[in-house]
Automatic annotation (TrEMBL):
It comes from the Bacteria. SUPFAM superfamilies: Probable bacterial effector-binding domain, Putative DNA-binding domain. Pfam families: GyrI-like (PF06445), MerR_1 (PF13411). It comes from Micrococcus terreus. Residues 1-70 form the HTH merR-type domain. PANTHER family: MERR FAMILY REGULATORY PROTEIN, REDOX-CYCLING DRUG-SENSING TRANSCRIPTIONAL ACTIVATOR SOXR. GO terms for molecular function: DNA binding; DNA-binding transcription factor activity. This is DNA-binding transcriptional regulator, MerR family.
Length: 264
């Protein structure tokens, strides 16, 4: 087959076939000594399909060369495809999270001169949680908080009423954000894979965030501006009590924000 015909059959460009020849990935079946014209055997389509599939999976051309030598079969390629699909889906979620964070930050800038005042000072009683703890990258917390809640829920779901009061706390540290995620409990022993965390009684400025977690930073920033302007200062980890968070659509979620404070 002439190179143009083989390119059309393989759905690649002639230029790409010449490149694969130049780097030794896919040599033509025959090269005319006089004219230099390349021609290919239709059976070489199998090698071309594997080459393109591996390249599209994200392998470097050197890695593709090694895999072609090993004669990767359809089953192995299918497994690689599934793994790559999982990786790409995770990357897509991370990109969406970052874009939502940027959009949220822009809304904060747009609302810099708007200061809501619907906050109250409340005494919060001591609270014991069955929880998981972690130090997370603040830019990627959205990827981890849900799975952490799920892990705790799986460990305690057998207990009646165990999932009624979901709570998370957040405190910045040198290594990122120290996070506690769990459910209020009266138990004295934590199931395997979880731990007991005791939150002290505090005086806290409290407000309500309505809607998805992607915009909750806006509500926190407004609250902390109010705290400073009214002569308070943060005194401990901020807390989120998820009053309504069952729906898949977070537009209907209700979260109470609690920031322990003292007089500055």
């Amino acid at each position: 087959m002439k190179i143009g015909d083989f390119a059309r059959l393989g759905q690649v460009s002639v230029r790409m076939l010449r490149h694969y020849d130049a780097i030794g990935l896919l040599r033509p079946a025959h090269v005319d000594v006089g004219t230099g014209y390349r021609s290919y055997d239709p059976e070489q389509l199998h090698a071309l399909n594997r080459l393109v599939a591996l390249k599209d999976l994200g392998f470097t051309l050197e890695q593709v060369r090694e895999l072609l030598v090993d004669d990767v079969g359809p089953r192995e390629l299918r497994g690689m495809l599934r793994l790559r699909q999982v990786e790409l889906e995770a990357e897509e979620r991370a990109v969406r999270t970052r874009l939502a964070a940027v959009e949220s930050r822009l809304r904060m800038i747009e609302k810099e001169n708007h200061m809501p005042t619907d906050y109250v000072i409340k005494s919060q009683p001591a609270l014991r949680l069955i929880a998981r703890t972690a130090t997370l990258d603040p830019d990627r917390m959205g990827e981890h908080i849900g799975p952490m809640f799920d892990a705790v829920a799986d460990a305690i779901a057998h207990a009646p009423g165990a999932l009624e009061t979901p709570v998370a706390t957040y405190a910045p540290s040198d290594d990122g954000m120290d996070v506690v995620v769990g459910y209020a409990t009266s138990l004295s022993q934590a199931p395997q894979g979880t731990e007991l965390v005791d939150l002290p009684a505090v005086q806290a400025v409290c407000g309500v965030h309505l809607g998805p977690m992607t915009t909750i930073h806006e509500s926190w920033q407004e609250m902390h501006r109010w705290i400073v302007d009214n002569g308070y200062e943060p005194a401990g980890s901020c807390r989120e009590l998820y009053v309504r968070a069952e729906a898949e659509d977070q537009a209907d979620w209700v979260t109470e924000l609690q920031q322990p404070v003292s007089r500055s």
